[in-house]
Write a sequence for this structure.
């Protein structure tokens, strides 16, 4: 009946965990290869299932206690386990997560060894750390007096001052309300156990306790006592590594939150980048942010450690052991990283990229653009400008106009450099276009410019326009002037306003050339500015403006042309008529007729319009001439002249048709 | 010996610049006398110059031969094959020695305290190093970086042709002795960190390039870029570079300027064909995910070879001890790379790098479960579970006089330790283990 009650009741998770531990222990005693035994495997499964949160079991002579209650009594293996633990002076066992089979077996093997032997080799805790057992922790009884104050022979009660306050019977004690300093040569394992116990008993924050204790202890060491400070920091780091479960993450988070203080930096600086990186995943967002900030400040070329301290750390056995445990995990990661399929894919991907590498020309553009964008120092920026212009000139000298253009546009297209440095870039462009490089470009435009030379020229933009305008002003050779005008048109094609803004130049010949260039841009947007030029005082400007307007606007220029038929200067009128004569649409005919009938034209122009209409022989033209020729009543001489011209034209048309 | 060579180099520089009575020359002389006498204090001392290496009393000095390769060249050029010391060193002898090296005159009388090419020293007894060519290339590359740095410090341009020639030497040597090259790339120098680091990064970048199937013409520009990737540090003030503590924001900003300084220096050096080198210098701290520095709007990922150099750069930096950070094991350095793939590093290149280095890279020092300590020379190529190594310490912890080859299964590894902790110097053992190393 009693058995029924036992088996019938719902076992608590702590009972089940303890039973599983006992089962695993019993199996390991019986079999040389316990991991292969079903009972051991089942025990591991139970532990994996139930040991999500850390759990502590107090250890009695042959019994375990959990939350003040005895558990696991009556089970042989569990009692044996408790006995062995008790013999090794274990006061409590703590599972910080599901223990691995390997950790359990190693612990059981340690427990089976002679306790004096284990103690002689540094004690059970040290042996466990050395064996890399990280999922199970133990708290020992009565061992701490060896670690603090002086030796046992010196007596326990003679320490005084703040240090005395931190030790009771040689055991580190902690007071949340008043953080206490500790002697710097404490035993890290004992310290970590003491802290964990204190945090557990006082319901406190272990991380806070750790940091407060660290601060208080460091405050008790003279600033000038470099060796002492190093030892203290090292012992706290070792204590950190001896902490269990999530405690270390919380402690690290606490230190990171104060990373800008010197004393906390001294602690953080003991960790390598990879140590810190390994914690990243388990840190909360705030701590992560602090870590990134700390890493940014402390990265690579910085730090706060002396070489001596590094030496001390490197030889610290506990730290080395802890790192070895991490190395084991790294090995696993690396094996995954060097997985054949992954590697094969990586090589395939890299080789594909090898076929698509940018050419040197593109690299030069990329670096140059980056340099201009990144540089914030004026003197250095000017140096980059010099490097840039030198490379552009060299490319032009080598006839590599594509590279030259690429280098120029890499900087000038998006203009990512600081605004305050823009004048240096603009000046460089001006200097470039005014340098010897212009001659080979003119030579190209004298014959057949290549796409490269056109693109290069266009890249100069405003500076290019200004330079060419000045060259044009002085150039007497008609061929070179024509080439320069073509160049101007090329630069202005992207933005006619670059040319338009110079139309107010006081030199008529300059404005005339600008008008010609605008006509060659093929950009209708320039027509408005050209129309305004029809008011220019110099007829040579008006003449070229008229031609350019026609070139850009086609039939839409007819109104301007007909208006120009009454220009004050004969040359303009002649040009207008000639331009009109060359056009064949009905609109032109109508405009010609309208201008003829408006009475605004000089008699000579009227005769020319009549002749022009006659030569076109369109219905509109024929009708207009017939109308003029049929006029019976004319008073003025000039009207008679026009009518006679119409009659003559009519006869001519008749002859042609007959 | 290092002190003596260092003192001689310093004195040579002083003699070139200042007269004998100048306080700086006097001080250099005083330091030199002390160093030479200390060297000779153990008895008869002879230094040989043979196959681009210094030998002290017949024993090869591998590291010093690299560090003082330029002094070796200067001594060779004036016909010095050996010198021996008969203490106490006379001030006039040492001054004349430096003057001869400096090319400003001087003569050393026979029978003085420093004797050149003494008939008693027989170079034929010296054992030729099987990696002499490799060491020569390494020294050449080291000298090229020193020279480039010196040029920039003097306001001159980098002689890119010299740099390229030295890289060609590295490429040629790496082709002949690829495994030994990777082992040699574990050599470190605290005093000349940047120079050695640059050459190591160059060797690893070239090795990775070879693994990817690149030919010499493609490898040389990568080598030039990797050799000069940190050249911009010349523009960072010594105060910041040597700052013993944490860098403040201003100092950190100054450090961050070195990529752009390097790229400027390379582009300013002229000639076409160095665009890749400038790109690598500019981008080696740009991260795969677009972050990093210099901070510019990146329209594309860093260049493939910038990413490649970033991997080698990080690996060497992590495995090197600095005054502010301990060295990490090669294994841990690889894990750092793996841990940052996709963010800082190109995942494909990190995997290719691990493939090249193996789970335990050349130069790894492993403690086996049997208690012996081994030095990994290379991993078994097709089967990553075995490493080829040499036993350097027996189970009793005593160093072997002659390392013994051994094949190590990974399951036999107890732990990996830092070479300096184990008291093992992989690069110095190269002569003894060269014939075990993969070619």
């Amino acid at each position: 009946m009693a058995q029924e009650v036992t088996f019938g009741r719902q076992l608590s998770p702590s009972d089940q965990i303890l039973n599983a531990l006992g089962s695993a222990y019993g199996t390991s005693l019986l079999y040389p290869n316990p991991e292969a035994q079903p009972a051991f495997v089942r025990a591991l499964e139970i532990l994996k299932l139930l040991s999500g949160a850390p759990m502590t079991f107090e250890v009695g002579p042959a019994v375990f206690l959990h939350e003040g209650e005895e558990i696991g009594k009556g089970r042989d293996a569990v009692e044996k386990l408790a006995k062995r633990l008790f013999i090794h002076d274990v006061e409590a066992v703590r599972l910080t997560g599901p223990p691995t089979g390997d950790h359990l077996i190693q612990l059981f093997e340690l427990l089976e060894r002679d306790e004096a032997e284990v103690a002689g080799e540094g004690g059970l805790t040290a042996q466990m750390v050395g064996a890399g057992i990280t999922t199970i922790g133990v708290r020992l009884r009565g061992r701490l007096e060896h670690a603090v104050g002086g030796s046992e022979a010196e007596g326990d009660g003679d320490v005084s001052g703040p240090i005395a306050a931190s030790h009771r019977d040689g055991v580190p004690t902690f007071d949340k309300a008043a953080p206490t300093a500790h002697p710097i040569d404490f035993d890290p394992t004992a310290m970590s156990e003491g802290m964990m116990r204190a945090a557990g008993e006082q319901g406190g924050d272990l991380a806070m306790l750790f940091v407060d204790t660290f601060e208080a202890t460091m405050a008790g060491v003279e600033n000038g006592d470099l060796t002492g400070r190093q030892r203290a920091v090292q012992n706290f780091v070792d204590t950190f590594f001896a902490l269990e479960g999530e405690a270390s993450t919380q402690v690290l988070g606490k230190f990171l939150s104060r990373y800008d203080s010197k004393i906390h930096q001294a602690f953080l600086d003991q960790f390598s980048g990879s140590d810190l990186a390994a914690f990243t995943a388990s840190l909360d967002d705030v701590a992560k942010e602090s870590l990134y900030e700390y890493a940014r400040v402390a990265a690579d070329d910085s730090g706060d450690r002396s070489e001596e301290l590094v030496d001390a750390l490197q030889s610290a056995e506990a730290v080395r052991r802890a790192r070895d445990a991490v190395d084991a995990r790294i090995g696993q990661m690396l094996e995954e990283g060097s997985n054949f399929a992954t590697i094969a894919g990586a090589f395939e991907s890299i080789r594909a990229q090898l076929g698509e590498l940018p050419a040197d020309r593109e690299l030069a553009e990329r670096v140059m653009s980056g340099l201009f964008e990144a540089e914030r120092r004026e003197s250095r920026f000017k140096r980059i400008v010099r490097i840039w212009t030198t490379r552009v000139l060299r490319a032009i000298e080598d006839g590599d106009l594509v590279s030259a253009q690429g280098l120029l546009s890499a900087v000038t297209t998006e203009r990512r450099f600081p605004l305050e440095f823009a004048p240096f870039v603009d000046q460089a462009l001006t200097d470039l276009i005014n340098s010897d490089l212009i001659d080979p470009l003119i030579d190209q435009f004298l014959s057949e410019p290549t796409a490269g030379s056109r693109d290069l020229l266009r890249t100069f933009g405003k500076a290019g326009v200004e330079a060419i305008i000045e060259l044009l002003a002085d150039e007497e050779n008609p061929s070179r002037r024509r080439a320069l005008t073509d160049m101007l048109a090329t630069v202005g094609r992207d933005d006619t306003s670059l040319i338009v803004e110079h139309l107010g130049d006081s030199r008529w010949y300059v404005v005339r050339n600008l008008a010609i260039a605008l006509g060659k841009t093929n950009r209708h947007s320039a027509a408005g500015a050209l129309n305004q030029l029809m008011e220019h005082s110099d007829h040579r400007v008006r003449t070229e403006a008229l031609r350019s307007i026609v070139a850009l606007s086609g039939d839409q220029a007819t109104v301007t042309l007909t208006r120009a038929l009454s220009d004050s200067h004969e040359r303009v009128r002649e040009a207008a008529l000639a331009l009109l004569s060359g056009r064949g649409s009905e609109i032109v005919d109508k405009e010609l007729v309208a201008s003829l009938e408006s009475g605004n034209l000089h008699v000579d122009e009227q005769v020319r319009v009549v002749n022009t209409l006659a030569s076109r022989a369109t219905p509109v033209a024929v009708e207009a001439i017939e109308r003029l020729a049929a006029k019976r009543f004319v008073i003025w001489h000039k009207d008679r002249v026009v009518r006679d011209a119409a009659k003559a034209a009519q006869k001519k048309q008749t002859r042609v048709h007959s | 010996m290092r002190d003596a060579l260092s003192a001689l180099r310093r004195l040579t520089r002083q003699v070139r610049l200042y007269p004998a009575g100048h306080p700086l020359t006097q001080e250099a002389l005083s330091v030199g006398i002390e160093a030479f006498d200390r060297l000779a204090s153990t008895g008869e001392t002879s230094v040989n110059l043979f196959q681009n290496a210094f030998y002290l009393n017949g024993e090869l000095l591998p590291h010093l031969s690299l560090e003082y390769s330029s002094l070796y060249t200067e001594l060779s050029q004036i016909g010095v094959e050996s010198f021996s010391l008969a203490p106490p060193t006379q001030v006039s002898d040492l001054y004349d020695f430096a003057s001869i090296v400096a090319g400003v005159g001087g003569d050393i009388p026979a029978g003085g305290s420093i004797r050149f090419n003494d008939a008693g020293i027989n170079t034929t007894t010296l054992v030729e190093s099987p990696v002499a060519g490799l060491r020569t290339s390494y020294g050449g590359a080291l000298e090229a970086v020193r020279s480039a740095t010196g040029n920039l410090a003097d306001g001159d341009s980098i002689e890119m042709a010299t740099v390229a020639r030295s890289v060609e030497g590295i490429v040629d040597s790496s082709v002949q002795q690829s495994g030994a090259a990777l082992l040699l790339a574990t050599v470190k120098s605290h005093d000349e960190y940047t120079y050695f680091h640059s050459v190591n990064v160059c060797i690893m970048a070239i090795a990775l390039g070879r693994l990817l199937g690149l030919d010499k013409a493609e490898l040389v520009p990568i080598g030039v870029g990797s050799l000069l990737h940190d050249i911009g540090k010349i523009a960072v003030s010594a105060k910041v570079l040597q700052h013993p503590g944490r860098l403040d924001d201003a100092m950190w900003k100054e450090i961050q300027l070195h990529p752009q300084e390097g790229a400027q220096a390379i582009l300013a050096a002229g000639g076409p064909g160095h665009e890749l080198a400038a790109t690598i210098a500019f981008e080696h701290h740009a991260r795969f995910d677009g972050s990093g520095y210099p901070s510019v709007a990146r329209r594309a990922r860093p260049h493939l070879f910038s990413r490649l150099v970033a991997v080698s750069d990080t690996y060497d930096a992590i495995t090197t001890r600095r005054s502010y950070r301990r060295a990490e094991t090669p294994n841990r350095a690889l894990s750092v790379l793996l841990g940052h793939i996709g963010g800082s590093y190109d995942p494909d290149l990190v995997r290719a790098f691990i493939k090249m280095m193996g789970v335990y890279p050349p130069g790894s020092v492993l403690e086996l479960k049997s208690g012996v300590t081994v030095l990994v020379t290379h991993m078994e190529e097709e089967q990553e579970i075995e490493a080829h190594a040499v036993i350097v310490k027996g189970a009793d912890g005593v160093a072997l006089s002659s390392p013994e080859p051994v094949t190590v299964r990974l399951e036999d590894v107890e732990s990996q330790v830092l070479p300096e902790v184990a008291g093992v110097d992989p690069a110095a053992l190269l002569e003894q283990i060269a014939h075990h190393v993969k070619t």
